[in-house]
Amino acid sequence: DPVPPLQVIRPEPCRVCGSRIRFGKTAIKCCQCQLLLHTKCREQCPSLCTPQSHHHAWPREGVLADFAPAAPPLVPTLVVQCVTEVETRGLTETGLYRVPGAEQLVREWKRKLLRAGGALPALSSVTDIHVVCGVLKDFLRGLKEPLGEGAASPLTLLPGAATDIPDDAASDTALRHVVSKLPPANRDTLAFLMLHLLRVSQSPDCKMDVLNLSRVFGPTLVGHSSANPTPLAIMEDTPRQCKVVARLLSLPPSFWRGFVETEQENLVPV
């Protein structure tokens, strides 16, 4: 039961072809099952709404907790595997996370990993490390809510703590408090990702300092100032989103390690 075409505000994957529907493009959403797809994919869409059986595979989109393991730290295996692969052979690559990987390969590997569920295929066969970076970014973008958002932490709190408190020490205290109140899977994954991005920023070969990384990850990790932002609001939110990630990366690594170093063996990819 499609509704008239709507304009996409937050990029989401098409549930038919898997390709991301970009900002400002038109899409179709089913009134009954909320399935979202490109207008061009309408003919390939089943005419009847049927429940999706995931078996052992992950959902194609969802909140982060849908992908998290049962035991802490609650970091999805896909995130662990991408980060491990990047740190194994990518820290000498210039423009890590800024240089795009081939979109078709990113799409194919993201689909393959999501369908695999728990035991993921090895990323070592992906020749271009920028494709692995693209899979991680696309996975985070495809979540129903940003990583820095959750029921216990309204999306306005992180930007407020990062940008509205002039005193750095007070701002750091507020940020730590907000992070600690995030849903556990969001909190642990954010901590794991921050530690990774700090290592990327410290690699002279990558040429990706905190400012560059905050520009790349700001819109992905931080929510907007309203639930249904206008294009103008999205543009106005971008500097604040980048400032939030820069402030998060300014927190000491010991703070982030406190969330993920318990039962560290659980972070070894399958």
TrEMBL record:
SMART domains per record: RhoGAP
Pfam families xref list: RhoGAP
Keywords: Metal-binding, Zinc
GO biological process: mitotic cytokinesis; mitotic spindle midzone assembly; Rho protein signal transduction
Domain of life: Eukaryota
Domain Phorbol-ester/DAG-type, residue spans: 1-49
Entry-linked InterPro entries: C1-like_sf, PKC_DAG/PE, Rho_GTPase_activation_prot, RhoGAP_dom
Name of the featured protein: RGAP1 protein
GO cellular component terms attached to this protein's record: centralspindlin complex; cleavage furrow; midbody; nucleus; spindle midzone
GO molecular function: GTPase activator activity; metal ion binding
PROSITE patterns in alphabetical order: RHOGAP (PS50238), ZF_DAG_PE_2 (PS50081)
Residue span, Rho-GAP domain: 62-256
Source lineage: Eukaryota, Metazoa, Chordata, Craniata, Vertebrata
